[in-house]
Amino acid sequence: MSSAPPTSPLRRWLPVAAVLAAAGFVWLMATIGRRLAEGGTVLHLLGGYVLRGGWDVVLTPRVLLPAAVALAGVLWGPALAARVRFGALLAGSAVASGGWAVALALSSGWHRLPEPLAVRYEYPHDVPRVGSIGEFLSTFTASVPADSADPWTTHVAGHPPGALLSFVLLDRLGLDGLGWDAALCIVGGALAVPAVLLTVRAVADEARARVVAPFLVLAPIALWVATSADSLFAGVAAWGVAGLATAATAGPGWRRDVRALVGGLLLGLALFLSFGLTALGLVALVVVLVHRCELGWGGVVRVLGVGTAGVVLVVVAYAVGGYWWLDGFHAAGDRVRSGPSYANRPLGFFLFANLAAAALALGPAAIAGLASLRRHRLALLPLAALVGILASDATGLVRGETERIWLPFYVWVLTATAFLPARRRRLWLALGAVLAIGIEVTVRTEW
């Protein structure tokens, strides 16, 4: 990164240039996608060319709700984030994030909250199939192949059993129905925000965490927090990373070990929610390694070792139950590759269209933040998340729908907003909120 002073012309205009370049890239990929579709290529994006969802403007008075939330967030969010007690900021940011996601969804009607989970491809569809948990785990992989006697539905088959098990356990707690399922996703996604803020404070300082808070709340990713299951995955993984980050800053002793163990357990659970979360490993390493000078290599090894023990405990628990992660990973990969939505989607296009969808989900503030990065250890956090995104993209298994699939990575990329110049932060915050409302009004997204 350049060592030019913040007031240099390059520093001043690079974020603007980056956002304009990203907008041009999105337009280019949408144009290519449209031409591919007109030529007979089936993109499986429900009429869309980058995002999954066709162009269909629905503008009603209900849009005033997210507009009001966005206006309040832009006008008062940064000041509140800077002044309130940090504990209140953590709780308030989660509530505000969930409220923003719900407000966006409700602009298209009340049905938009449970509707995404009602289709036969989603997890709630297979909840009634699960009887004994032990039998479910031991026979799960056998039902992953599409040609098995009784295959799981698409999303269940493409993930480890923990994803479906989350909805099964919710049902068995008596919280059955799509409304509760939607609430689980929204709450999970909203709780990712305080986890990220705690991590930013641990890696850098409280001041930067306070800067990031409004951007995490009002980012366009909220469109897929209500209600895709990937937002739940993001919340679990974020708290796992936060556990390791806060362990690295805790004093030596049992408190450090407990936090590291809890972080490892949560990261272990995340591995059984989505196979793709393995690419978050670099983020988990970074939040500990940045404290090498304070901890020494012995302390780093201890935190990572205890965290690893937590992950191993989860892996062993699932193995004892009858499910082996590696077998499930290979079976899920075969299921994905055997489906028409994979075979028909051109890899060359989606390697880039995936990133265009990511740019829309992250919004202009994150892009500008990445262009504003400086030599600081906090910069390693969004960069590590970007490496995870690029690694996921390079596998070729992810072809479309990355606006939701990469939610667990986006919350970390958004930490780049800590580097935005103070005088332009409110502008970038407003542009992100406007983009989110614009997508909600003009694109019939599936989630």
Structure description:
The protein has one domain. It has helices at about 10-40, 65-85, 85-105, 135-140, 155, 160-170, 180-205, 205-220, 220-225, 230-250, 255-270, 280-290, 290-320, 325-340, 340-345, 345-360, 365-370, 380-395, 400-405, 405-415, 425-440. The two termini are about 35 Å apart. By secondary structure, it is mainly α. The radius of gyration is 21 Å and the shape is globular. Helix 2 (about 65-85) runs antiparallel to helix 3 (about 85-105), helix 3 packs antiparallel against helix 7 and helix 10 (about 230-250) packs across helix 20.
The run of helices and strands is: HHHHHHHHHHHHHHHHHHHHH
Helix content range: 55-70%
Q: What is the 3D form? A: globular
Question: What's the end-to-end separation, in Å?
Answer: 37 Å
Low-confidence stretches: 1-5
User: How confident overall, as mean pLDDT?
Assistant: 94
Number of domains: 1
Radius of gyration: 21 Å
Mind describing the biggest β-sheet?
A: none
Write a short abstract of this structure:
The chain is an all-alpha fold.
Secondary structure blueprint with pairings:
Layout: H1 9-38, H2 64-83, H3 86-106, H4 133-139, H5 154-157, H6 161-172, H7 178-203, H8 206-218, H9 222-225, H10 229-249, H11 254-271, H12 281-289, H13 292-321, H14 325-338, H15 340-343, H16 347-362, H17 364-371, H18 380-394, H19 402-405, H20 407-413, H21 425-442
Structural features:
mainly alpha, 21 helices, 447 residues
